[in-house]
Amino acid sequence: MTTKLMGQRVQRVEDQRFLRGQGRYVDDVAVENGTLHAAVLRSPHAHARIIDIDVSALLDMDGVHAVFTYDDLADFTPEMAEPLPLLIPHPALTHGRTQYALAKDEVNYVGEAIAFVVADDRYVAEDAVGQIVVDYEVLTPVVGIPTARAARNLVHDDIPGNVAAHFEQNVGDAQAAIAGAPHRLSLDLSIERSACMPMEGRGVVARWDRDLNRLQLWASTQTATGVRAAVAVKMGLDLGQVDVITPDVGGGFGVKINHPWPEDLLVPMAAKLLGRMVKFTEDRREHFISSAHERGQDQHIEVGFDDEGRILGLDVEFWHDHGAYTPYGLIVPIITSTQLLGPYKPQNYRVVFESLYTNTVIVTPYRGAGRPQGVFAMERTMDAIAQYLGKDRTQVRAVNFIRPDEFPFDHGLIFQDGRPLIYDSGDYPQSLEKIKALIGWDDFPALQAEMAAQGRRFGIGLACYVEGTGVGPYEGGHVHIETTGKVKVATGLTTQGQGHATVFAQLVADELGVKFEDVEVVTGDTRRMPYAVGTYASRAAVMSGSAIHLAAKRAKEKALKIAADALEADPDDLQIVDGVVSVKGSPGTSIDLGTVAVLSNPLRYAFDEKSKLATQFSVGHPDRPPVPRGEEPGLEGKDFYSPDRATFASGMHAAIVETSEDTAEITIHKYAVVHDCGHLINPMIVEGQIHGGVAQGIGGALYERMAYDDAGQLLNASFMDFLIPYVSEIPDGIAVDHLETPSPLNPLGIKGAGEAGVIPGSAVLAAAIEDAEKLPVTAMPISPSDLFTLRLEHTQ
């Protein structure tokens, strides 16, 4: 029998192409002769009214084909002049706002699109942008959470207090429980703004086919079908008139799930009007000032607990900075408010948040999506309880864990998908034992004392998390067995480097019994799978993996039925091994899948030797139609997977750091991860995801911050000033161990893994630095300068 591929460390099929420079990104899309290029005039002010826009200097400028401002949009379609969609409404989002494709009357952040120029090339387009004259009335901007809360100035005149949403959830009576608890603590914490920096920025290319009355669009996106739907509506087209193709994507991390961006609409609009292919590629500065940020929150925590450290009541209030608009709704703060609980079960819990407008770049999910903030709040609380009681930090966590026999565990809250927050499976005590062994927790006090004797400051930190993964509503899979015996697989979500072509091929090869190398996977092409959701929230393996598995089962059932007719056997007596259908125990009685695919079509264009069993045309049996009722010609299967609710992966990270007494530099000497994502499809790919996530978590904890001044100007909008970790800042040999508690919610028993590495980064490093310095760490990220200042504050 063929060895099962699920759980095997199969080498990624994508890598050779990328390593040889053969990747094909949006900027590599083969352009036609005469392709035009676009550039965008962006606001230099964080908050201003637009008095006038003068484009007269462009009218006779060589090489300029068109310039658009807001006033031109309604001439194309009325929908184009309306605000961009609010993608995820919520009852608590009482004052949601989205921007226009081009600013109408007012700009609300530096970088907001004002005018769109199309020219012979990008150089001419950018020169033309520089000739546009805008008369502004500059207004006082609102920058930062404290300023937004003070509400002396408003981002939007009709939104009181700059508050887009006020949201509260309660389980039990947290405040009464805290008041009656033997011990009480309060903490004030904060995490600053950061942003994801994919190697490839946003990009879009569009071509309008006048003969076919059809739009073809290439986009660097995490949701090809979402972009397709938005473009169709805004351009007044039927959905069937729009094809969106997502080629290779050089990283997404959340920023490319927002849709549509203004350029997603403006580029195809220009292509249709001008009858030419039009192209836009975001440059790096544009990504800093006009894409999306995340992370910024201020938090206040009240907790009551007993002598063992068991939480009796937890009351959390936080303020979330969502920037100038709310296209992605309240997803990030809702995730913070619910995933904050991690693997613990406080008996009484109250959470309240306000989502606030500021005159800064919009906020959409960035890998982790609200969880790093929530884990920071919970794990700093756990450490504070342990310090207060003089207990080991692992002991306090252990007494608060949900026990393995308590699953499924209902927290009594509503999760981001509007479904109950019910954990499906896990074993947190076992994860704790694994992480202690992996990091050397019990041996660390001796190491810390030894280093202290040498004048060196070492510290150890631990952080636990639970990650909701595989959120709905659905994904689909299509499996088509060709007459060559090759298998073509399609799913609608996109790929940004996760290894989908490998893991999905593993699943299909296992289910169909074909060779791994005979399976080809296509993602993110609406021509192949028009209905899909997208790649985000660690959902690809759970959603598309399950759908593809189910689709392969359908294709297999059909193949066995057709082969049974040809071999005059019972389908239950057949097996498929390496693409050949045979009778169990009698391998000589067989037929290959390619021939079965030929037989599946009554109009049997069979011209090769291996298909000799087929005639060119068959009328079938006299007592039934050539295509049985309820079936289709061809050997393929299609299915969709829609879950009852999310699955919940989990994990624990631990780190040993050293802080320099002289320079306050922070060095990570050891980093360990224990991770549970249910059954592993490909452990090597999961570990690669974890390693990449850990690197991003370290970046968020020690380096990355968006530094705005009071005028709303981003002071570090380049890689000269926005710090990211090099490989030299990432510890060698990140230790990873796996725990597999299968999910009962999907046919593969899997959970998501994409964000596991990044989620607890700030929490675990804050704990380790605090242990080394014996000073409270309440704000992240923390740089050497921050640590130096913190030392000074505690010596005065």
TrEMBL record:
Gene3D superfamilies from the UniProt entry: Aldehyde oxidase/xanthine dehydrogenase, a/b hammerhead, Aldehyde oxidase/xanthine dehydrogenase, molybdopterin binding domain
SMART domains, sorted: Ald_Xan_dh_C (SM01008)
DNA-binding is among the record's keywords: no
GO MF annotation list: iron ion binding; oxidoreductase activity
Highest taxon above the source species: Bacteria
Domain named Aldehyde oxidase/xanthine dehydrogenase a/b hammerhead: residues: 20-140
Keywords: Molybdenum, Oxidoreductase
UniProt xrefs under Pfam families: Ald_Xan_dh_C (PF01315), MoCoBD_1 (PF02738), MoCoBD_2 (PF20256)
Entry protein name: Xanthine dehydrogenase family protein
Lineage: Bacteria, Bacillati, Actinomycetota, Actinomycetes, Nakamurellales
